[in-house]
Amino acid sequence: MSDSDDTKSVTLGRRRLLQGLGAGAAALAFPHLWLPREARAQTSGHGAVRHLIYIRLSGGFRFTTAFNSDVDAEFNPFGGADNRAPGTEWGVGKLLERASWLEGEDGEPLRELGMKPVAELSNEMCVLPCVDHEPFSARADGGHGTGLERFLTGYVGGATGFLTLVNYGVRERVKEAASQGITLLPAFSLGEAGMATGAGEYATYRPPVLEGSGFERFSVDPDSSLPPWAARVASKMDTRFHARLHTALRGGVETYQQTRKATSDYGKIFRDPLLRVSSDSEEQVDGISNRELRTLLGTDTTGQRAALALRLFHFGCPAVFLNQGGYDFHSREDAELPDEMDAANRLVSGLRTALQKMQHPEGGTYWDKTLVVLGSEFGRTTGGGRFNSANGSDHGSDLATRWMSMPFMGGVITSAGKGGKSLGSVNGSNLKATGQVYSYRSVLKTMLDLLGADHQGIFPADAPIQDFFV
């Protein structure tokens, strides 16, 4: 795992010296050994992006069939891609060649807009083959409940969702914009409440959770229905109520009042026609129309949410999370996974095409300022065969469950020269790590770091990953 570069002069006692020699010897014997320590460093890419799209391949994804495919058939029964892009080091799965949406007359508009099969874009993506929840643990966490908790918060029983940490981390940026009369939208979770947990100091930074794929219900401004005198009365009542409370009890009320004010400010944005992504508007905003977004990303729920994410970014939203598909194939994986991947491929290719076409208000393209990351709660295993007895796959405590081979895509990856690179490797016959192993919390912290979010005190034993920039 990549760790902090911070160094300081120390004097080692005999016990500390022996401990250090022991750890050093172990590291030489096992080059992928993960050793936790307090991590304070920022990467050289700190603040390189303004936006993050974080996609969960729902249910537990068999990563070796797509992003770590150069392994035995036990782990990837579908084989590797024949047409991976030149300069690609990571294992591109055969399933990433699927692109039914590019075929025939229906696919012509997509081809004209520049969409390609994901396998042909592989040199624009960097993959971490060995991401583990707990690299220091003796076994993988293959539980749906605990694995998802780790995915959403970093820990089993974690109280603070990742998007809450994003909002907390960019709070000074939001405050500075507000001092200039600019309202920046917070991070949004599109359909996953667990990404929006948080209490105590994080309570006011919980992101909105949107169950649908638009803001059609925000068609009326409730504040405008109040006459000025009524608005003044309501404001004074809030002030008097707050002043009468004991200081120890004011936190909850302040949270409510801030949330109510933010909702009012956000409501003005939510009523903007630009967020009506289900419309076929041909108005060009940021160099693309809503109709073009629907063409690129599709008109199903996932496509609509992805289009909404790109439009939320126009209003300063730093991050959007969304689920894609359902990959818990304990049976019929042989028949059903290819079609599910076909839909995922369209999402990835469509996002790449849209981001490269869209012009960012701060200059350059959205591709230059957006990071796209895919993950899941764990990998999948068969325990020895190509499929289990029901032609599916399971999850347990082995390496196939353990490794989440996570792809990263965006201009920051290209600029760092990591497009097509594999940060880590495995033995194809048994999946034992032969290179770097990264903790999942380091991945989360890296995303915070690249967003320029303050992550001091968050996941203190896990550093942002420096290897993207060396």
Question: Can you tell me about this structure?
Answer:
By secondary structure, the chain is an alpha/beta fold. 33% of the residues lie in helices and 8% in strands. A seven-stranded mixed beta sheet has the order 3-4-1-5-6-2-7, sandwiched between helices. Helix 8 crosses helix 9. It is globular.
The number of helices is 13
The termini sit apart by 13 Å
Strand-and-helix sequence, N→C?
A: HEHEHHHEHHHHEHEHEHEH
Strand order of the largest sheet: 3-4-1-5-6-2-7
Q: Overall mean pLDDT score?
A: 87
The stretches of 5 or more residues where confidence is low (pLDDT under 50) are: 1-33, 35-39
Characterize the main sheet: 7 strands, mixed
Query: How many β-strands, per DSSP?
Result: 7
Furnish the topology, listing elements before pairings.
Elements: H1 14-29, E1 51-57, H2 108-113, E2 125-132, H3 144-153, H4 162-169, H5 171-179, E3 188-190, H6 228-244, H7 250-270, H8 290-297, H9 301-314, E4 319-324, H10 333-357, E5 370-375, H11 399-402, E6 404-410, H12 411-415, E7 438-439, H13 440-450
Features:
alpha/beta, disordered N terminus, 470 residues
